[in-house]
Amino acid sequence: MTVEVCFKKGAIGTVHSHEEHDQIGYILAGSFEVEIDGETKVLEKGDAFVAKKLSKHGVVSLEENSVILDAFSPAREDYLTS
User: Fold this and answer.
1) Residues 6+ apart with CB under 8 A from 73
2) What pLDDT score was predicted for residue 20?
3) CA atoms of 58 and 49, how far apart (whole Å)
4) 3 state SS of 41
5) At residue 82, does pLDDT exceed 80?
6) Phi/psi at 30 (nearest 5 deg)?
7) Largest interatomic CA distance in the chain
8) Exposed site from 27, 39, 55, 63, fewest CB < 10 Å?
9) For residue 26, what are the β-bridge partners?
10) What span, in angstroms and rounded, lies between the C-alpha atoms of 35 and 46?
């Protein structure tokens, strides 16, 4: 499952973990400070990160209109609408 998420500058994806899902985040636009298991890096357009299930991860948008394409496996039922 893929999800495109657009962030305003300074928006925070709070540090969290997934019990059932692996996640890959691909930066489509802008830049983010990305934290995975306590390690922080700045990622820009064209960069990606992997957050395996149970790893603690979060982001902070460093620019207006920064965009991440998140891929989840398995699909996240909580994101689906009827």
Assistant:
1) 1, 21, 22
2) 94
3) 11
4) strand
5) no
6) 75, -150
7) 37
8) 39
9) 48, 69
10) 17
Encoding tokens for residue 69? 């394409």
Question: How many Å apart are CA 8 and CA 21, to the nearest integer?
Answer: 25
Please tell me whether residue 19 adopts helix, strand or coil conformation.
coil
> How confident is residue 14, by pLDDT bands cut at 50, 70 and 90?
very high
Distances (CA, A) of 32 to 2, 22, 36, 76, 80: 19, 19, 12, 23, 26
What are 35-77's pLDDT values in tens digits?
999 999 999 999 999 999 999 999 999 999 999 999 999 998 8
Sketch out the chain's domains with CATH numbers: 2-76 (2.60.120.10)
What six digits make up the tokens of 59? 């982001």
